[in-house]
Structures are given as structure tokens and as C-alpha cells.
């Protein structure tokens, strides 16, 4: 069932006197328990549509319907609440908070999402998720001491700890070697299925496409197939 | 709060360096203020330390203390009507010790009053700074305008006028030395003292301006202090602004995961407060220690009130700088913040 719809979304940027249209009317629906992969050449607008869908920037026009609510009509605070409770993000370069340990990264996310869990339960939940991404043994480590693959695993753990409905992943394997990329993709696939997540992923790596349920190709701001 | 503290704990060296800059800037401001206030005090401690009241000068003196002469009959009438009133005069001069060495002083004489030292004829009471010049109680001092000699009866602390130590002498001796019967000023220790025909009244503060060169010197000293305070304040504000703007990528990540803007503001404020309070506490402590340990001859005067006022100014401007950066962070979209942080 589609619980996330993108309808006629456009995005323009103005640089000096020149207006550049990055998205020229994108339509997309995402389904629960599926990984949708957005592919396309550099500059096609795939990362832009992902960040707009994730509420990290505003669309110029169009609608983004999350569970029937139009996100383009929401205030900044309403979008923040959706991001904190319903969305999870995995960025290209993990973007962990450098001064927090692996365990603290996840506890902060639970704190931000205003989970109803008590302190003890939060610690147990963190342990459970870290086991799921096989990072429990590094829970006291800081991001600087983790490998690229480990950092992405922690970023994935942070993205799912608060049980979001939608998971956005922007080139999650871009900074990893082939083996680690496959490990991360297997983990994303497994989590999408077991937690019934709706996952939207941007990638330029064709080797990662077999892990996706649907592949959408973008070019010049349009979806072409 | 927790996240702000964790960042400081993890990046101790970075925050220590930031804190030490705040400490050095505030310490510099306190020390320069202390020296400037010390000079000001050195110029007019005699007047500044007097109780709140009204000073009267002759109207013809054109608000210049040296030119004032109070009519004797009027003086007597005022003294009769206002118990506690005192007439006094100050003149620059010098005394010679037994070795004929000259010491600059400001001779002060007055009618009998609690505000001024009571001195008998032929006696002199000096500011304690003259002890360092080798003068002791019982020494005999002379002056070429005075037919007799002065016996040192004692010393008083921190009584300076026009950068010279004060020398209290008896009115009769003063009248002989300066060949003048009238006093220059009348002081009534009351907030709302009456007006008198032919006399102009001054509050404690405005009377200081009647001292020759005081206001000009004070203006320079105040300019030094306020320039320093303004520049230090601006440094504080810019400093906290830059500190937060440099971390915009981090704030972008925290915004992206849904952290409330108020939580980011709290993080900014907590860090600013911790750094500033610790740095200011150190500066206040050290500057007060310097106040005690400063060499006796160095005019240094830094009251706790001044230090607290300057600290409050620094805290407020630091808060403003940090808050402006907070608004910048509030305004920016998370993605833009992350991208800026990557640059």
C-alpha cells in the first residue's frame, strides 16, 4: 500500500539572475516493505527529490502526501515533528555527531523522537538495535575510531531506533568498498522487510540495484522510467 | 544541556582554548579598568571618599574650585544654620624633611568636622604614601611659606588630591602660608541642602568637574575604559557567533534528525555561559588578587562593583552574540546547514 506520494513536485534554484529548474514535475509513490531505488546521472535531481521528500528542504511547487497529510502545507515545526518521529535518514557520509559515542548517538535520537520508553528501556532498545546492525561491541566508541562501514551501520541504527515509517538513504554506500556496500545493502533490505519500512534510496552504484524492489530512473529533473 | 556538556567534555582542548581567550580579554579589561580607575582615584580620592552632600563655590569662581573664595560672614551663617557643615580649602605645595628633601603634597585645611582630620597648630597629618618616602610620625617638616615647623602626628590611608598625597594642616597655619582668610568651599553633608545667595551648589559628582584638569583627565580615562569594554564586548559577541557558525554542519545534522530549535539554542547558551562564567570567575579572582598585591606606588583601584558590572556586560554581549548565531541556525534549512558544514 502506498503511504507516501510525491505529486508534480518542482524545485528551482536562483543563482544571481539565472533561475535553474532542478525538478520539473516529479510523481512518485512509495510502498511499505519496499526499497525504491532512485538512479540517474549526476545532476538528474535524484538527491534533490529525496531531500525534499524527507523534509530537509522545501519544494517550489507540488504536493508531498505522507499518510494523506500534505507536507508542503506544514509549518517548519510540523515538518520537524514528522522528521523526528516518522522519518529516518542515512546520509552519504553517515553524519554522526562527532562527540557522542555510538550508544549516545542512538539515545539522542530516542530523546529527539520523544519516545515513551523509560531510561532503562531506552538502553535496552539501543542494545537491541546495535545487535541488529552488529555494532554492540563498539557501543562506547566515538565516530572517529570507526571504519566507514561501521559508521554507516551506526547511521542506519540511528535512522531506525525510533521505529520510523519511512527511511531515506542518500547514497548510503558511496563511501564504502564493494564488500561493505553489500553488507550495508543487505542490512537495509533486511530491516525494510522485518520492520515493514518504506525505504527510498538514492544510488549511482548499479551493483546495489538488485537489493531494491523498484528502480526509478531520473534524468534532467524528470522520472524517465 | 547534556549534549552541550558532552561536546565540551569530548573537545576539552578546543573549549579550553576558547575559554582562555575569553579569560585573557576579560582580564585585560579588568586590569586596564583598575589602572584607569586607580589614576582617577589618585586624582581625587579626597573628594571621592567624602560622604554624599552638597559643595558650594562662590558664583564668581565660574565653577572653578581654585578661584572660589567664600565670604567669611556667609560662611559663619551657613555653619550656624547647618550643623555638620564644613568649610575647607585645598592648595598644592610641598614640605621639606629634615634632610631638606622636598615632597609634593596637597595641603588641606578645614573648620572642625568629622569629614576632615582635626589638626592642631604646628601639626600635620599625611597620606600614608609618604611613609614610603621615609617620613615617620614625630618627624619635623618645614615649608618656605610657613614661619614655623610641622610635626607629623600621624598618617591616613588613600587620601590623594591631584596625584599628590594630602597633608592636613591647621587653618591658622594655612591662612599664614597662603595669605588668605577665606575658605574656598563649603560642604554640607545632606542630599537636599539649601541654596545660598552668591554661592553655586554642586553634587559630589559635579564638584569633581570643578577640580582643574579632573574632567579632562577623566574623559580620557573613561574613553580608554569604554573603548576597551566596547571592543572586548564586540570580541565576545563575534567570538561566540563565529564559534557557532563554524559548527553549522553539526547543527544541520541535529536539525535533520528532528531536534527542536529551542534545544539547539539551549546548547548554544549553555556552552556560552559555561565558558564565560568560568573565564570571568578566573579573571575576577585574579584581578582582585592583583588589587591586593599591586605595588603600593601603582595607582590601581578595582572595586568588586566595577568588576561585577563589567562581567554582566560581557555576559550580556556574549549572550547576544550566541543568540544571533542561534537565529542564523534557526533560519537555515537542515540540508543547507549540512552542506555548509561540509565546505
| Number of β-strand runs of chain A | 10
User: Tally the helices of chain A: what do you get?
Assistant: 6
Assign a percent range to the helix content of chain A. Answer: 25-40%
Secondary structure class of chain A reads alpha/beta
Describe the sheet with the most strands of chain B.
Answer: 10 strands, mixed
User: What shape does the CA trace of chain A take?
Assistant: globular
Low-confidence stretches of chain B: none
CATH class category name of chain A:
Alpha Beta
Classify the helix fraction of chain B into a percent range: 40-55%
Query: What is the percentage of strand-forming residues of chain B?
Result: 15-25%
**Biggest interface, CB < 8 A:** A-B, 26 and 22 residues
Q: Separation of termini of chain B?
A: 28 Å
Secondary-structure element string of chain A: EEEHEEHEHHHEHEEE
Mean pLDDT across the residues of chain A is 90
Anisotropy-based shape of chain B: elongated
User: What's the number of domains of chain B?
Assistant: 2
Strand content of chain A is 25-35%
CATH overall fold name of chain A: Rossmann fold
Count up the domains of chain A: 1
Runs of chain A in which pLDDT lies below 50 for 5 or more consecutive residues are none
Secondary-structure topology with pairs:
The complex is a heterodimer of chains A (225) and B (343).
Chain A: E1 2-15, E2 18-31, E3 34-39, H1 46-53, E4 61-66, E5 69-70, H2 76-85, E6 87-90, H3 102-112, H4 119-132, H5 148-160, E7 166-170, H6 178-194, E8 198-202, E9 214-219, E10 222-223
Parallel strand pairs in A: 3-8, 3-9, 6-7, 7-8
Antiparallel strand pairs in A: 1-2, 1-4, 4-5, 9-10
Helix pairs in contact in A: 3-4, 3-5, 5-6
Chain B: H1 2-10, H2 12-48, E1 54-58, H3 72-81, E2 86-96, E3 102-110, E4 123-127, E5 140-141, E6 150-156, E7 160-161, E8 164-169, H4 171-178, E9 185-188, E10 199-202, H5 204-208, H6 214-245, H7 248-256, H8 261-293, H9 304-331, H10 334-342
Parallel strand pairs in B: 3-8, 4-6
Antiparallel strand pairs in B: 1-9, 1-10, 2-3, 2-9, 4-8, 5-6, 7-8
